[in-house]
Design goal:
Elements (H helix, E strand, L loop, with lengths): L1 H18 L2 E9 L5 E5 L8 E5 L5 E7 L4 E8 L8 E8 L4 E7 L8 E5 L6 H4 L16 H25 L3 H11 L2 H14 L3 H6 L1 H14 L11 H24 L1 H9 L3 H10 L3 H11 L2 H17 L6 H11 L4 H16 L8 E3 L10 H7 L4 E7 L4 H17 L5 E7 L6 H10 L4 E5 L2 H10 L7 E5 L5 E3 L8 H12 L2
Parallel strand pairs: 1-7, 9-12, 10-11, 11-12
Antiparallel strand pairs: 1-4, 2-3, 2-5, 5-6, 7-8, 10-13, 13-14
Helix pairs in contact: 3-4, 3-5, 5-7, 5-8, 8-9, 8-11, 9-10, 11-12, 13-14
Length: about 500
């Protein structure tokens, strides 16, 4: 009996401590038509984004269970209809805080006011100035103008922090964490801008590739990239999370520009074998390689959680059980094991699915079909839902996992044919078939060559993947009106009309 009581006390005591460390945030947003605002909590990769509903008076509250102070970003749009007027406000919450944040969309600079316990750590002078407008530099082919603006912003932030300390007498932890966070401010801004701008000026970007990359290397040389002490700070956490994604993009650039050197360094093999491995998984496994090369200890542990979260969000199970197994060996006491074990177990179970007779492969995949007209001839007299997708395409996988079963159930025994055309996957046929089984993609499957992909996308006016269109019984085509993310009800109506004729 004594042993049982002791165990009960040991179990309850830590729980009581955590509950006692609450911090409460109250948000009030005036002249706003939005029904919610969003919290971004970088210290919690699996639950980093949280929507909190704004009640009738446009107020909301949220309770945080904190052991240590944390940065939390609040942002809100002025409406739910895509209105571009919005604000960001970066909070520094400490255990025991009871903070009130007020904003008004009709006032200059949103009329921010912070009051209550913890207000000395959350005044607008710093908290409202995290986002600087770099849009005027979009389209620049060289990095120097934007870097000049970022350097100015960095200088101003450091000046404002010194003013803030004198004016508001913030806590010692606030001063320490903000100073550390600002060491990564310029690097965070620059790298996010660089890769966004790359999509605008990609040809010029590659011509000036070395100049853009030199600044990245210089910034990361000033502020240590692998830094456990900085893990709780906003700009460092934001930087390394983005780094995991952008470095993957950078490595794709290296694979394209210098394939031999890339495969030797990252895969320890020649171009033929390296390309095979890279094509099979250029996301999850590559990101694990990045983590192991650049990070150690708590930062690496955190980034594994970021990797698992991103893979789940993108419906990307490739190599996740194996990566999770290696993670558990490295960090057997990690809190993230409990958070991700269930989802990984689900992946393991679903990966046991095999191809069935309801998954039909068209003859001559990748060689026989070169035009949409040839595909239409094969589907003559049928109403066909066509999904242009790829194993490498995150939004494609997400839409398939989210909608396939519901669509199939709705049109069961109603004569709808399903055609899945995989694009840019000729070198990835094993993974293609594996994902067809994994997502239970019953229907007809075609592996497209580039000529077929280009012809279909031009004729259906597709602008990216996934592109969903319908082949009607008379052989004419029409794009899905549901768009992405898919509104199934719109698609159901559209298909029902065509099936009825």
């Amino acid at each position: 009996m004594r042993k049982t009581v002791t165990l009960l006390v040991l179990c309850l005591f830590p729980f009581c401590i955590v509950v006692g460390q609450n911090a409460v945030l109250h948000v009030s947003v005036a002249n706003c038509k939005a029904t919610s605002c969003r919290l971004y909590i970088p210290s919690q990769p699996k639950n980093a984004l949280l929507d909190i509903p704004l009640k009738g008076s446009h107020t909301a509250s949220h309770t945080f269970k904190l052991i240590n102070p944390e940065f939390v970003q609040v942002y809100s749009f002025s409406s739910d209809t895509g209105d571009q007027k919005y604000f960001y406000y970066l909070l520094y919450l400490s255990p025991g805080d009871d903070l009130v944040l007020k904003a008004d969309f009709s006032k200059p600079e949103f009329g921010f006011k912070a009051s209550g316990k913890g207000a000395n750590n959350n005044q607008p002078l710093i908290s409202a100035k995290q986002q600087i407008d770099l849009h005027s530099f979009q389209g620049d082919t060289l990095p120097y103008r934007v870097m000049g603006a970022i350097n100015t912003a960095q200088k101003n932030m450091n000046t404002d922090l010194n003013k803030y300390i004198k004016l508001y007498k913030p806590s010692a932890s606030y001063i320490k964490d903000w100073k550390l966070s600002l060491r990564y401010y310029a690097s965070d801004l620059y790298n996010n801008f660089k890769y966004t701008n790359k999509n605008v000026v990609w040809q010029a970007y590659y011509r000036n590739y070395a100049k853009w990359q030199k600044i990245t290397d210089s910034l990361l040389g000033v502020a240590k990239l692998n830094n456990d002490a900085a893990l709780a700070t906003f700009h460092y956490t934001d930087l390394i999370t983005a780094f995991l994604y952008w470095e993957k993009v950078h490595l794709s650039d290296e694979e394209y520009l210098h394939p031999g050197a890339f495969y030797r360094e990252w895969y320890g093999t020649d171009t033929v074998e390296g390309r095979k491995q890279f094509s099979a998984d250029h996301k999850n496994l590559v990101q694990e390689k990045i983590i192991n090369k650049y990070f150690t200890s708590k930062v690496a542990e955190y980034l594994y959680a970021v990797l698992f979260t991103a893979a789940a969000a993108e419906s990307n199970p490739t190599n996740i059980p194996e990566i999770f197994g290696r993670f558990k060996e490295k960090y057997p006491k990690s809190k993230y094991i409990a958070q991700f074990s269930k989802s990984v177990d689900t992946i393991i179970a679903v990966e046991k699915h095999t191809l069935t007779g309801n998954m039909v492969f068209m003859a001559g995949n990748g060689t026989t079909f070169n035009s949409l007209d040839e595909v239409l001839a094969e589907m003559k007299g049928k109403t066909v839902l066509v999904d242009m997708w790829g194993t490498w395409c995150g939004p494609c996988r997400e839409e398939i996992e989210k909608n396939n079963a519901a669509i199939r159930e709705h049109f069961k025994d109603k004569g709808l044919t399903y055609l899945y055309i995989a694009n840019d996957d000729l070198d990835n046929q094993q993974q293609w078939k594996k994902l067809i089984a994994y997502f239970d993609m019953e229907g007809t499957h075609l592996l497209a060559n580039k000529k077929l992909t280009d012809d279909i996308m031009a004729k259906v006016k597709g602008t990216g993947f996934p592109t969903v269109f319908i082949i009607k019984k008379d052989g004419t085509i029409e794009q899905s009106k549901a768009r992405e993310p898919m509104d199934r009800e719109i698609l159901f109506k559209q298909l029902e009309e065509y099936l009825a004729h």
